[in-house]
Write a structure and sequence with these properties.
- The termini are far apart.
- The chain has a single domain, classed as 3-Layer(aba) Sandwich (Rossmann fold).
- It contains 10 helices and 10 strands.
- It has 320 residues and is of the alpha/beta class.
- Strands 3-2-1-4-5-6-7-8 form an 8-stranded mixed β-sheet, sandwiched between helices. Strands 9-10 form a two-stranded antiparallel sheet.
- β1, α1 and β2 form a beta-alpha-beta unit.
- It is globular, with a radius of gyration of 18 Å.
């Protein structure tokens, strides 16, 4: 393989079943395109069924013979998460790769259907529940992985266990940062549980750096202008294409040398852009006690409990 890891380094994915949340646009779409071109059956798990079907059509046109399916998944509703998991389970006995890619960033305070702060409820709790409800499919599939996409914004976050809805002091950095820190901590805690159970499934995290995507569509106008691809001659050092932003996810998902409990991101200055490489997350993210407390609270809030049989990797999550 080349020193600079690229999409060309993604190995053959024939026979593999992949679920990617939020795959109708941006980094998720680019990830899906590469994996479909390598032979995987790719399931686009998206909130908007119409946009998912449009994206599926684009992929089929771009990748002749691509095996693309869609799945309606609204991560801001635990009932919808359960419905999506049941729909997947009804049609698939194996899951090789789950990529928790979807994410929301919204400057105003909002709540999910279940009353959680929007960022935490969608970006973390929705994925926590969805992963848990599909865990038995992952455990039954040799070589399976869970890749959760975080953000460099996790460095500005903290876990407010006494006020996860942030009623005492909401701000965009507090909300988004908490959810993205939770993504990384979830990965580390999940990998520790998988290893303790003797399961071969890996949990890996990634972040895209800064990329031209729709994730900032709710941001103020001046931010959208600054991040516009029309200014590429000015902000080239700060932003890369959605395809470039997908590379850390693709490496975490497919590199044969990847190990569980690791974190991939761009290798350039500030981890803004560049080829994907192993990077370090924030010091706070490695706090094992906080990871455990976050895990327990996530199980309580979602009603999804991860039950891994030691040394067997037997099934898995159950509602309680």
């Amino acid at each position: 393989m080349s020193t600079r890891w690229s999409a060309d380094d993604v190995p053959d994915q024939g026979g593999r079943t992949v679920v990617i949340t939020g795959a109708n646009t941006g980094i998720g779409f680019e990830t899906a395109a590469v994996l479909a071109a390598r032979g995987a059956t790719v399931i686009l798990a998206c909130r908007d069924a119409g946009r998912a079907e449009t994206a599926a059509g684009r992929l089929r046109s771009a990748v002749p013979g691509a095996r693309i399916e869609t799945l309606r998944l609204d991560l801001a509703s635990l009932a919808a998460v359960r419905d999506a998991a049941e729909q997947f389970r009804a049609g698939h006995s194996r899951l090789d790769l789950l990529i928790n890619n979807a994410g929301v960033i919204h400057p105003g305070y909002a709540r999910t259907e279940d009353g959680f702060e929007l960022h935490f409820g969608t970006n973390h709790l929705g994925h926590f529940a969805f992963t848990g409800l599909l865990l038995d499919r992952l455990l039954a599939t040799p070589g399976s992985r869970v890749v959760t996409v975080s953000s460099s914004g996790h460095r500005r976050g903290d876990i407010h266990l006494a006020d996860l809805t942030l009623q005492q002091g909401y701000g965009l950095n507090a909300g988004y940062g908490q959810s993205k820190l939770a993504n990384v901590m979830f990965t580390y805690a999940l990998q520790r549980k998988l290893a303790a159970a003797g399961a071969a499934t890996l949990a890996v995290a990634a972040h895209p750096g800064n990329a031209y995507t729709e994730v900032g569509r709710h941001m103020p106008g001046w931010v959208r202008v600054a991040l516009s691809p029309r200014l590429r001659l000015v902000n080239w050092w700060l932003l890369q294409s959605a395809g470039g932003g997908a590379l850390p996810t693709l490496r975490a998902a497919t590199d044969p040398q990847a190990t569980g409990g690791t974190y991939y991101g761009p290798s350039g200055p500030g981890e803004f852009t560049g080829s994907p490489a192993l990077v370090a997350s924030s010091p706070r993210s490695y706090d094992v006690d906080l990871q455990r407390r976050l895990w327990a609270e996530s199980e309580r809030l979602t009603g999804v409990r991860y039950e891994l049989a030691a040394a067997h990797g037997e099934p898995a999550a159950a509602d309680r």
